[in-house]
Amino acid sequence: MRPHAEDPDHHGEQTPGQGTPAVWTGRAHNRVQWVLATVGAACVALGIDLAVASPWTTGLAPLLMSVIGCLAAGLLMLFGTLAFVHVAVRVDEECLEVRCGHMGLPRRRIPLSDVVHADVAPRVTPCQWGGWGYRWRPEKGTAVVVRRGEGLVLRLGDGRVFTVTVDDAEAAVRVIRDRLRLIATRTSQV
Questions:
Q1: Cα–Cα distance, 103 to 28 (Å, whole number)
Q2: Which residues are bridge partners to 183 per DSSP?
Q3: pLDDT reading at 99 higher than 60
Q4: pLDDT value, residue 163
Q5: Which residues pair with 165 in a beta bridge?
Q6: How far apart are CA 141 and CA 159, in angstroms?
Q7: Which helix or strand (DSSP H or E) is residue 7 part of?
Q8: Most confidently modeled range among 2-11, 97-106, 158-167
Q9: At how many degrees (to 10) do helices 60-82 and 32-53 cross?
Q10: Is there a smaller number of Cβ atoms within 10 Å at the N or the C end of the chain?
Q11: Does the CA dihedral 153-156-161-163 come out positive or negative?
Q12: Is the CB of residue 169 less than 8 Å from the CB of residue 118?
């Protein structure tokens, strides 16, 4: 699905005299993460039920281990999945910012002055990166993967690569390339 001008998730205010939006925003969602978050909430509920109902007659240690295990697994699953239900990408005049989940954490800001090249990856999959979430692979770089599909790939001046799955990555690449040309023009004039 391509964004429209009326879509609040994909807006770009035009800078006077330029064809590049002042701000470009994009998002990507993963509905499967909600299922995993529900399983995490069920584990937390089971841990609370075990603690309150306490049907264990064999001692306190097995009860504590069960309650703590259910609560820990449930909270890890719940918060780990909710952090990557969606990702929001914002490109402005100075940087690219990636915010994950409802609280915007983890967050990554990359100054455009550090970007050497921007490209579109037509098919980014969780299998390529070892799963969903904030990933690092020595041979590939860093990625934020919330779903399978197109993504934005940035090559940084220090040799690192950053990938993020986002809808309409082509538009983001156009905006970033325009900004990189503008930065290059400014530095060549100085």
A1: 15
A2: none
A3: yes
A4: 95
A5: 151
A6: 9
A7: none
A8: 158-167
A9: 160
A10: C
A11: negative
A12: no
pLDDT for the residue numbered 75: 86
Give the pLDDT of residue 36: 78
Asked whether 85 and 37 are in contact (CB, 8 A), the reply is yes
87 in Cβ contact with 27 (< 8 Å): yes
- C-alpha 132/C-alpha 48 separation (Å) is 28
Neighbours of 41 (CB within 10 A): 16
Q: How many CB atoms lie within 10 A of CB 36?
A: 18
Q: Is 33 exposed, middle or buried (0-12, 13-18, 19+ CB in 10 A)?
A: buried
pLDDT, tens digit (0-9, with 9 covering 90-100), for 137-178: 998 999 999 999 999 999 999 999 999 999 999 999 999 999
Mean of the pLDDT values across residues 62-90? 85
Burial 146-159 (b: 16+ CB within 10 A, else e): bbbbbbbbbbbeee
pTM over 0.85: no
Distance (Å) of CA 95 to CA 59, 87, 98, 150: 57, 16, 10, 21
